[in-house]
Description:
This protein is an all-beta fold. Helices cover 0% and strands 25% of the residues. The model has no long low-confidence stretch (mean pLDDT 85).
Amino acid sequence: MIEGLLPEATLKIFRKRNSRIELHAANSTYKPLIFTGKAKEQVQVIGKLVGIVRRP
């Protein structure tokens, strides 16, 4: 466990637009999380999805 990080995370689509950071859920019923100003410093990318393996 790393101090300061929550024990869980969710996968989001990361978008940088002008002076803000947007985190979008794959499920469109959830609103995007938008960070501007000092709040952008709170955003941490802790991993990157590089592929999905589907087995029959």
